[in-house]
Automatic annotation (TrEMBL):
One protein family per Pfam: 7tm_1
Keyword hit for Transmembrane: yes
Transmembrane segments: 12-32, 44-67, 87-105, 126-146, 181-205, 226-250
Gene3D superfamilies named among the record's database cross-references: Rhodopsin 7-helix transmembrane proteins
Descriptive protein name: G-protein coupled receptors family 1 profile domain-containing protein
Main location: membrane
Length: 338
């Protein structure tokens, strides 16, 4: 019978899971409903949709099983489901982290280099596909490593937990944990920190380095919101995923079985990742007006471009061309700040 502590953990787990499902479903609905405006040739929103899908994969296909294990204190779904469910969770978590890095890269590119052309649709699709393929390949050994571990409690009752077993060769086990940590967590984290550090530097510390075109007033007014969003993304990501980083480093040093299902660090890392999945919709939509009033983007952008073009004299073709480039840069920067 589950203890009161297990019941509390299960209740907390259920609440966070419900919030994550509702939040990510709403974000996916907004993006899909406004796909002709938000998703067409706009890489950032395609990446956000990909992040939302990866979060939904976790909360739909992993959380119900983990909830019952937290509630009952044992795994009741057999070895095959243990392997598949945990594999999906680890793989989708890797996709979420990599997608965070892709969003950071695109936002930095849009702000620091606004005159560059948008990413081609084919390239964006390839990047999204790789964000699923790479974690799926790297996580494959977990299909072998996860097993249902049975034990006997003080009441002589058999208990089963779905937990990873180490690869029989110790050095190979630690090497795999190091590779998995490097590819799926450490490298994307470095990209995220580097991109958002430079975003904050460009918008606050050295605002003169940002190439602000004709629509500069709107961009200037958005700087505080840009910086606040960037800081929230970095802080939430680091806080929520730092237990997973510690867990991975611990396993690299001591082996996979040193952190098992039910271990304090395992539970903290699990809840940290789930909390990040629940807060992602809040962070990415609270300060993004396009996510709530996407239907007005077209007319707003038209007004911006019209004001840009009206400032050039009809007889001066060079000035008109500069204004057109300014409009394109404004729109790309507005992709970032809105």
């Amino acid at each position: 019978m589950a203890s009161s502590t297990s019941n509390f953990r299960a209740a907390l787990f259920g609440i966070i899971t419900l919030l994550a499902i509702v939040g990510n479903t709403l974000v996916a609905y907004v993006l899909i409903k406004g796909r002709k405006i938000l998703l067409k040739n706009r890489a950032t929103y395609q990446f956000i949709l990909n992040l939302t899908i990866s979060d939904l994969v976790i909360v739909v296909f992993f959380c119900p099983f983990e909830f019952t294990q937290e509630l009952w204190g044992l795994w009741k779904f057999g070895t095959i489901m243990c392997k598949v469910v945990e594999y999906l969770q680890i793989s989708a978590s890797g996709t979420a982290v990599i997608t965070h890095a892709l969003i950071a890269m695109e936002r930095y590119r849009s702000l620091a280099h606004p005159h560059l052309p948008r990413l081609k649709e084919k390239l964006v699709r390839q990047m999204i596909a790789l964000s699923w393929i790479i974690p799926a390949i790297v996580s494959t050994p977990f299909l072998y490593m996860f097993q249902v571990k049975t034990s006997v409690d003080h009441q002589k009752a058999f208990q089963g937990t779905c937990t990873p077993f180490a690869i029989p060769v110790p050095w190979l086990d630690k090497c795999y944990e190091a590779c998995e940590f490097l590819v799926m967590f450490f490298s994307p984290c470095c990209v995220i920190c580097w991109c958002y550090y430079h975003i904050i530097t460009l918008t606050i510390i050295n605002p003169g380095e940002v190439q602000i075109p004709t629509a500069g007033r709107a961009l200037q007014q958005s700087k505080k919101r840009v910086t606040k969003t960037s800081c929230l993304i970095v802080v939430a990501f680091l806080i929520c995923w730092s237990p997973t980083f510690v867990l991975s480093i611990w396993r690299i040093a001591s082996g996979t079985e040193s952190i098992y299902q039910g271990h304090v660090l395992y539970e903290i890392a699990l809840f940290g990742g789930l909390i990040n999945e629940a807060t992602n919709p809040v962070i990415y939509t609270t300060f993004d007006r396009n996510m709530t009033v996407g239907q007005s983007i077209g007319c707003c952008r038209q007004r911006i471009c019209d004001s840009c073009l009206n400032e050039g004299t009809p007889s001066n073709q060079q000035s008109t061309e500069q204004n057109r480039l300014s409009c394109r840069a404004s729109n790309r920067q507005l992709d970032f700040v809105n």
